[in-house]
Amino acid sequence: MNAEAALTLAERAEAVQRPAAGDAPDVPSPCTSVCRMDSQSGFCEGCLRTLPEIAGWSRMDGVARRGVWRAIELRARAGLWRIPEPSGDKHA
């Protein structure tokens, strides 16, 4: 994920949470078909969900799904997808 993709995802998450969307019976899946888990962050590289969020999505109600979207928005805006690579300096 890069900064532009994270911003787009955060904006999509914000739109899903708006009151008009909140009344909608179906909350869209955050899946972007980039299904790779980042080993350092624990987030999907495409949608910033955790494995429990991905696995539980089909059983969640609308409120829980919007909660996941909120978490995605916060992760994207906070840059939590940017896990720095180890420097290799063992004395740091």
Can you walk through the features of this model?
21% of the residues are buried. The protein has helices at residues 3-17, 19-22, 51-56, 62-78. The model has no long low-confidence stretch (mean pLDDT 85). The chain is 46% helix and 0% strand. It is globular, with a radius of gyration of 15 Å. By secondary structure, it is mostly helical.
Brief sketch in words of this structure:
The protein is mainly α. The protein is built from four helices and no strands.
Structural class: mainly alpha
**What is the rounded Rg?**
15 Å
| Percentage of residues in helical conformation | 40-55%
Order of helices and strands: HHHH
Query: Biggest sheet, in brief?
Result: none
How many helices in DSSP terms?
4
Shape: globular
- Strand proportion, as a percent range, falls in under 5%
Low-pLDDT parts are none
Distance between the termini: 27 Å
Number of strands: 0
Mean pLDDT: 85
What would the keywords be for this entry?
4 helices; 92 residues; mainly alpha
Mind sketching the topology for me?
Elements: H1 3-17, H2 19-22, H3 51-56, H4 62-78
Helix pairs in contact: 1-4
